[in-house]
Structure formats: C-alpha cells, structure tokens
Amino acid sequence: MSSSSRAARAVAVACFAAVSVAAQGIHPQFGLGGGLTAPVGDYHATAGGQGFNTAWHGLALLAFKLPVFPLGFRIDVSYAANSANDRLKDTLSSALGQPTDEKTKLAGASINLTYQAAAARLKPYAIAGVGLYHTTISISTSESTADRAATKLAWNVGGGVALALRGVTLFFETRYVNVAAVSGFPRTTFLPFTTGIRFGGR
Questions:
Q1: Please, what are the domains in the chain?
Q2: Contact 196, 33 (CB under 8 A)
C-alpha cells in the first residue's frame, strides 16, 4: 500500500473516530476560518528568484477536546491558491515566447493533535498533525492552460490563541506546512495565517 493510501485511510479512520467520540459525550466544535498563505523556502523563491506570491486560503474544522486532559484532536479541510511572482512569469514567458502565468491550488485534509494551556478566557495552544494535499499546478498562456496534479503527504506544526466568548470561540493561529514535492516542482512549504471562529462544545 502506498504512503498516500495509508494517509487517506488514516483520515477516514479519524472521521469515524470523531463520530464515536461524539457519541460518548465529548461535544465537538465546528469552525470556519481564513487568512493569508505565505510561501516559504523554494516555494517562495528559488535561487533564481522564481516563486509564488502570498495569497488567500480558507479552512473548515471539526475539533474535540478531552474532558480531563488538555489534549484534543482536530480534523481540518483547507483550500489555498497562489500565483507566480513576476520573476517566474518572466522566465516562463521567455521560455514559451508569449505571456505566461502559473498558479498552484492546494486542497488539503489533515488530522491534528492539540494541546491547550490552562488559562482564563485567552488560551494559547499548540497544534501538529499529518495529512494529504492535492496540489494542482496550472501554466496558462493566451492560447491554452496545462495542468498537472498529484496527491502528496504533508505535515504541519504551529500554534495559536483562542478567546472563549458566550457560545463561540475566536481563534488566531499560524502553522508551518510541508507538502511533499510533485514531480518537477519544488517541495511546497508555506505559512497559513488563519483567523476564525468555532461553534459548539463545552
């Protein structure tokens, strides 16, 4: 079985586990968020300066916190899109002899462990996990668009702060995400800065 198949099975198992946990009286939180995705490493710029710009992303989550321990787990689904910087556009345009653009689309799902520090209303937390990202790379000219895509393993680590209000929780977090390289494309590494809101739970 391939590593991608194993990760996909792990995501499915986590979804069934979420239903089982909820049935045992641990109440879930549903959340939505969004913000900016900042490329880092070669995804931001290679030695020649070719890379991708900061852009937007969206996030949906299902979170569970254990009733006694400060640990929890979270299932995330996210989508991000980044466009080529001017240096990369110039390089592609010169190679193809016409104005050319390149974009990446990142659709991901991850399983994460969370650790929330004990505090009053403002609670810092750490988060880390693994998952799968479906990366689509599109190169466009005035005449055509060529796509290539692959699903790859990814891992992430980061932290944030959560503010509990009446009935909802506001949060801000940032993570480092590392997605395995698609053939002929640099490893995709980026920092998603996310602001969001969680509903439910106790």
A1: 3-200 (2.40.160.20)
A2: yes
Indicate yes or no: pTM above 0.70.
Answer: yes
What pLDDT is attached to residue 167? 82
pLDDT digits (tens, 9 = 90+) for 56-100: 999 999 998 877 678 899 999 999 999 999 999 999 999 888 999
Please report the pLDDT score of residue 1 as a whole number. 54
- From the CA atom positions of the chain, what is the Rg in Å? 19
Instruction: Give the chain as a 3 state SS string.
Output: CCHHHHHHHHHHHHHHHHHHHHHCCCCCEEEEEEEEEEEEHHHCCCCCCCCECCEEEEEEEEEEECCCCCEEEEEEEEEEEEEECHHHHHHHHHHHCCCCEEEEEEEEEEEEEEEECCCCCEEEEEEEEEEEEEEEEEEECCCCEEEEEEEEEEEEEEEEEEEECCCEEEEEEEEEEEECCCCCCCCEEEEEEEEEEEEECC
